[in-house]
């Protein structure tokens, strides 16, 4: 049972990763992203998820340095973007991200999307970064089962994490099962469906029972399925409220009623057609 913001899961290589973190997609470089990260850290978050594509790695790094929190207490994720994939270009992209973040080591480095014909070479570069100790864990984003099988056929290192779009309208049960069977930790991006599901009566009624918002109900649902979640916000009250999900538990019946909201609807592109 996940009972606090500092609770961690143990990845397949023994590295501990917080179950809950802050996503910073669309947070503007500079003051906006710095204030969001500083606010999250103030309220106890210890995991921050960025990407080269977001264009805000420098602000994330500054906020981390200014926080005064020991580096070993923080977990920082970034990602290699599609036009940077390939062996040499991934190594270059990693160094650029590391420089912008101002960190010696990245905790988790992810392939952002499964670019056909490129992701295996990208993975080879990431395995090298991992062997050299420049990154503590490596993984992927937006990989379907067939992508994972294809990657794992030739890889020396099994992805530690698969970060995918995941919310009550896209429950991805088969992918979740496959990842659990292969010791790959599933992580949810867009867990609140960009706000599009938060007026649903099922979530509202469950929330009323516990004195929680629909958003808090969804984030609790993530955690109780063993899925890491990284809701994004730049607003202090939302950052604080999102993390207030550790003092209640959903019943099996409530979990099932949220599962039943699935319609296989995406807010982002399909990994086979992005």
Structural class: alpha/beta
| Average pLDDT reading | 97
How is the biggest beta sheet arranged? 8 strands, parallel
Strand order of the largest sheet: 3-4-5-6-7-8-9-10
Could you name the CATH class of the domain at 15-195 and 225-234? Alpha Beta
- Report how far apart the termini are: 35 Å
In the CATH hierarchy, the third-tier topology of the domain at 15-195 and 225-234 is known as TIM Barrel
Overall strand count: 10
Count of individual helical segments: 10
Give the CATH superfamily of the domain at 15-195 and 225-234. NADP-dependent oxidoreductase domain
In N-to-C order, the SSE pattern is: EEEHEHEHEHEHEHEHHEHH
Low-confidence parts: none
Shape descriptor reads globular
Proper CATH architecture of the domain at 15-195 and 225-234: Alpha-Beta Barrel
């Amino acid at each position: 049972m996940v009972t606090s913001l500092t609770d961690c899961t143990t990845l397949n290589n023994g590295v501990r990763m917080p179950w809950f973190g802050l996503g910073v997609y669309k947070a503007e470089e500079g003051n906006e992203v710095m204030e969001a990260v500083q606010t999250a850290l103030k309220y106890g978050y210890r995991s921050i998820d960025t990407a080269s594509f977001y264009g805000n790695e420098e602000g994330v790094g500054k906020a981390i340095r200014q926080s005064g929190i020991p580096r070993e207490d923080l977990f920082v994720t970034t990602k290699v973007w599609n036009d940077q994939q390939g062996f040499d270009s991934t190594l270059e992209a990693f160094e650029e991200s590391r420089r912008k973040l101002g960190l010696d080591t990245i905790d988790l480095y992810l392939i952002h999307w499964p670019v056909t014909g490129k992701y295996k070479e990208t993975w080879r570069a990431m395995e090298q970064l991992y062997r050299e100790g420049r990154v503590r864990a490596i993984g992927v984003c937006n990989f379907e089962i067939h992508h994972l099988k294809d990657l794992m056929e030739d890889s020396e290192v099994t992805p530690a994490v698969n970060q995918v779009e995941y919310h009550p309208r896209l429950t991805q049960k088969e992918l979740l099962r496959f990842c659990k069977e292969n010791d790959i930790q599933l992580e949810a991006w867009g867990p609140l469906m960009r706000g599009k599901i938060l007026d649903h009566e099922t979530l509202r009624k469950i929330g009323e029972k516990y004195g929680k918002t629909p958003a808090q109900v969804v984030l609790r649902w993530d955690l109780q399925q063993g899925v890491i979640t990284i809701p994004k916000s730049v607003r202090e009250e939302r950052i604080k409220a999102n993390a207030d999900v550790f003092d209640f538990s959903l019943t099996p019946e409530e979990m099932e009623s949220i599962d039943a909201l699935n319609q296989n609807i995406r807010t982002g592109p399909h990994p086979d057609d992005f």
